[in-house]
């Protein structure tokens, strides 16, 4: 019943920032998914008889690849597979299941915030036993394996029933279909003061959560409406759809525009939030105020000890390099460590495992803690609600007080999507060539202090990751950062991150793009964005 199938390598199976992401038709090529999954297994040792967790965000092609992955896990000698009912597990829920049931690892099927559907995106990611994304040495080994693969192993059995909870036997391996929500909801109840949040909501505090027709719908319904008493209908777009209703399940001001408009209206609810395709990102909007992800990280860290799960305080904070330095000021005040890592959650795992950090965050709307080893959209929403329930102040008041105490880091990211790959690479190369000569140069009122290509030395496993983004730091704490996306599936996406620090509270009311206007102009002057890409405007501003 176990068949060994001859195959030939595909040359393009290099995992990016978060797993292998390609268009669905690419994944539908003969043996494409099989080659990658076998290469994952080939890179691992000692999993015979162990447990593997499998789940995905429900996007188009999810079920097909789950069937393949289960049959291949059986053929390769895993002892047990835990799979979410319907093939559903949000990314943070998958991380929790891996940890809770002491699995060897997990396969998470998602292309996160990218659109889904027959011609849109799909993805496969491997997570290790700590519940987090495989570190670079593992993804490098997987990629090396895909270049030389000759055979894969699969059990020749009928399709597994993914829709009924309980245990089945697949070619001698146990497959347990689990409820995707229960374990996760239990964990949230342990971390947060649900009675206090229930009181807040019972007292007339109105919330709205947009699940964007993606995976968090069932989680948000259960937690926000059933357990915390939010009015029925508070969770919008709660049915996960294979194509996310034709939208980008990306919780930002562009793709969650309707929510933003509602939150800026006269009769706005008190708190608005959204999550992405696989449930690991969050958007936080208070009545009349959008909280940037970088600010959210800082504000959550500053107030985390108000929630029971963090009442003993934080060990430290980590942020990705392009994320604003707002969290650094909180860490300084709390007297705890702050770590700056490359983009992507895989770099936080070692720091959390070593007990050096409790809370981590990225400017791309990812925040999380050591409760799992992925970023966690609903977790961020619940920590906000817990803080609001204790402080009994509005989001707006909490944000303003925070800026008054710490100063405000005006922050924005400009994305230029699907630009010509050669033009994008040329732009980055030209920037690298300028690094040595930029320091000391002035652009209007701005003087370059330092310029480099970010390198990360992991303090735990001593691995080094080079070329993680070009940083140009100006005197006074402003900076621009340039890097190319590692999650896109067509052309190149240039990301430009712009930040200015403003300590003076009387100047905290400027519109963000206006506050950053001179830096935006200098970024173009130094990098030649318009001339090199032919674009006059970013595709997305967040
Ligand atoms: C983007 C974000 C990064 C995030 C990654 C995965 O990567 O910038 O912060 O960790 O997506 O998020 P890139 O390489 O495109 O900039 V998710 O929610 O797509 O798994
Ligand atoms: Co995501």
UniProtKB/TrEMBL annotation:
Q: Where is the Alpha-D-phosphohexomutase alpha/beta/alpha domain?
A: 13-152, 183-285, 294-406
Compositionally biased region (Polar residues): 1-10
Task: Output the Gene Ontology terms for molecular function.
Answer: magnesium ion binding; phosphoglucomutase activity
Keywords in alphabetical order, please.
Isomerase, Magnesium, Metal-binding, Phosphoprotein
Q: What is its EC number?
A: 5.4.2.2
Q: Cofactors per UniProt?
A: Mg(2+)
One Gene Ontology cellular component term attached to this UniProt record is: cytosol
> Which BP terms does GO give this entry?
carbohydrate metabolic process
Q: Which Pfam families match?
A: PGM1_C_vert_fung, PGM_PMM_I, PGM_PMM_II, PGM_PMM_III
Q: Which reaction does it catalyse?
A: alpha-D-glucose 1-phosphate = alpha-D-glucose 6-phosphate
Region called Disordered, residue ranges = 1-21
Q: Which PANTHER family match?
A: PHOSPHOGLUCOMUTASE, PHOSPHOHEXOMUTASE FAMILY MEMBER
Q: What family does the database annotate?
A: Belongs to the phosphohexose mutase family.
Listed name of the protein: phosphoglucomutase (alpha-D-glucose-1,6-bisphosphate-dependent)
